Amino acid sequence: MKAAVTGSTGLVGSHLVEALLEQGHEVRALARQTSDTSHLKTTGADIIIGDVEDYDSLKPLVQGVDIVYHAAAKVMPGWGKWEEFESCIVNGTENMLDASIEAGVSRFIYFSSEDVYGENLFGETPADESTPTEVECTPYTYYCYAKLLADRMVREYHEQGRIPVTILRLCGVYGPRDRLLTDRFYGLVNSPIVIWPGKSNPRTTLGYVTDVVQSAILASTSEKAAGEVYNVAPPEEQRWGQFADAIARALGKSTRRWSIPMKPVYAAAFFMELWARLWRFREPPFLTRADLRLFEKGINLGGAKVRGELGWEPEVSLEEGTRRYVEWRRAQK
Question: Residue 288 falls within a domain, yes or no?
Answer without folding.
Answer: no
